């Protein structure tokens, strides 16, 4: 079976690694240059952890993991609101939790498949022709090739989804935010795993990477879903956060490489069926939980593992249907969790901010963390 994977991110490379375990050699295309992977951190949770165990990658991820420790939230004047400790969350997950920079994560996955399957960077697709017996694909370099199956693992603004399923806007469920993330050098250590600030309709902060840099994450209420050019992005960030003190101030005045940074609307993707003929979707292309759920990468990894195992033992239509039947309940649950968190992620009033400052430390305390995890974390999905 010839399989084309469009997208060389976490979902696509995990899927490639899983296919190789079954003796299936895919072809991967990725629109970015190698190493252009975004300046933000991602979490590895139970479902992603279990896939990493099967791929023999847990120790490699651990070696590149960001330090886990206290997280401090301040108001926009720098006064402490509340704190909690990521180590409590890790203990509740029985140690199967870590944070890692996206570029480190992808390099580990790339090393796992390097030399075993073709990976073409700076390559996109421009046309898909599914005639029932196969899919003829036209690439951005003008070449054409034919595959038994095309998998869209090319993210939130998926080209595969747009070509085969319909316009991006048809599947969009905005949650009312924009977000931006990039990497910055630190003039001095943060003294915590995370130092953030919040205000009405705004939240932003820095995650210590452990190498003298920090990964930023800024989020603010904004109903618009249009894309913005780099100059407009910088202007919006200055308008929304430019009056905040350190450590936010230095992050906003640092140089931002928009080829590496993230800036987009916070929206879920809802596709009624993840496959159409010989074309199927995986990860953010199919469902996009958003960063609010904190489970996007791990859910994509689980989907990749399950899809590969189904393709290895069933006919194509049966495999695609079984993949969706096994993954849809988890995705539906985690999208609901994401929307629930999104409803109060950023306070809408001074009272709301004070309420968060009182409730969150209690919910994330050693006494209640297992209860909180049972309500918000993804349950283990059956992989085998």
From TrEMBL:
Domain FAD-binding span(s) in chain numbering: 3-334
GO MF entry, a single one: monooxygenase activity
PROSITE patterns for this protein: PROKAR_LIPOPROTEIN (PS51257)
UniProt cross-references to Pfam families, sorted A to Z: FAD_binding_3 (PF01494)
InterPro entries reported for this sequence: FAD-bd, FAD/NAD-bd_sf, FAD_aromatic-hydroxylase
Keyword terms, alphabetized: Monooxygenase, Oxidoreductase
Protein name (record): FAD-dependent monooxygenase
Gene source species: Shinella curvata
């Amino acid at each position: 079976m010839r399989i084309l994977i469009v997208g060389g991110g976490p979902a696509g490379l995990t899927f490639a690694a899983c296919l190789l375990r079954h003796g299936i050699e895919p072809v991967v295309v990725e629109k970015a240059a190698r190493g252009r992977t975004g300046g933000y951190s991602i979490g590895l949770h139970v479902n992603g952890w279990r896939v990493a165990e099967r791929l023999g990658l847990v120790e490699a991820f651990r070696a590149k993991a960001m330090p886990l420790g206290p997280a401090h939230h301040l108001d926009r004047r720098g006064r402490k609101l509340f704190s909690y400790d990521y180590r409590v969350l890790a203990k509740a997950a029985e140690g199967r939790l870590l944070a890692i920079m996206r570029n480190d994560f992808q390099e580990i996955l790339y090393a796992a498949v390097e030399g075993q399957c073709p990976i073409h960077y700076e390559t996109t697709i421009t046309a898909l022709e599914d005639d029932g017996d196969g899919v003829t694909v036209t690439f951005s370099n003008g070449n054409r090739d034919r595959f038994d199956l095309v998998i869209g693992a090319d993210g939130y603004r998926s080209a595969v989804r747009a070509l085969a399923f319909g316009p991006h806007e048809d599947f969009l469920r905005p949650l009312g935010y924009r977000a931006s993330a990039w990497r910055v050098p630190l003039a001095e250590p943060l003294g915590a795993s995370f130092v953030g600030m919040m205000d009405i309709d705004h939240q932003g902060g820095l995650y210590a990477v452990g190498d003298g840099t920090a990964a930023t994450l800024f989020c603010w209420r904004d109903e618009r879903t249009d894309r913005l050019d780099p100059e407009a992005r910088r202007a919006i960030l200055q308008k929304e956060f430019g009056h905040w003190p350190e450590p936010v101030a230095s992050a906003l005045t640092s140089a931002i490489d928009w080829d590496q940074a993230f800036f987009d609307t916070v929206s879920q993707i809802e596709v009624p069926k993840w496959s159409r003929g010989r074309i199927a979707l995986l990860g953010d292309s199919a469902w996009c939980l958003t960063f609010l759920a904190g489970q996007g990468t791990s859910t994509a990894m689980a989907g990749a593992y399950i899809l590969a195992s189904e393709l290895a033992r069933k006919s194509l239509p049966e495999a695609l249907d079984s993949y969706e039947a096994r993954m849809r309940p988890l995705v539906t649950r985690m999208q609901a969790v994401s929307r629930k968190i999104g409803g109060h992620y950023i306070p809408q009033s001074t009272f709301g901010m004070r309420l968060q400052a009182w409730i969150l430390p209690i919910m994330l305390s050693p006494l209640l963390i297992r209860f909180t995890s049972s309500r918000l974390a993804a349950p283990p999905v059956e992989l085998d």
